[in-house]
Amino acid sequence: MSPRNNWSDEFIDVFLDEARRHGLTAPRTTVAGIIDRHTAQVALRLGVTVNTARTRISEGDIRDMAREASAGFAKGEPGQELLDIPVTHTVPLAVVARTLACLAATSELAITAAAARLDREDIGHAGGKATALIAAWSLMIERTATDNDHDGVLAVAVPEAAIHRALRELARATVHLDAGALPLDGGDPDLLRAALGDNITALLGEL
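^ that's the sequence the OP posted. Answer follows.
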């Protein structure tokens, strides 16, 4: 095994250990993507190579990342309508558009996973949460455009709970992929997994 993989595997274990302390877990592939993107950001910020950036990242840094990610997945206001919760964040329109696309894929994966279990009742409800979030985020886009009274909306005003709920659904999508569910459109599951990881990282950056 290469030194890079040793480094990555060690910190994945640290990340998952800290996440478990908060009652959560995640696929190793998703955690690896989060750590790799964080390392690339550190390299860019310091103006060094990725290999050098790895030497600047400590176990404590990884545990901090895990605590932040765990808070993002765990926090939220269950049962409340998102449009009734006070707005606290503005999310770039590009991130919102990516989130809507990934939520659509999440809904499809949930349906595929339910179909594989041959559970007719589950199939009917499988994609419901992701679909409801798509509708809610779409309405928040409309509300932001109306409140700002302009056509070129560059950021969308949302409650923090909207971000947390989206994070939870995207995490479920990666679990479905790792369990063997395939996109309904026949797309490449590895590319979808990477897109989901990028979306999760982007949303965590908005918290």
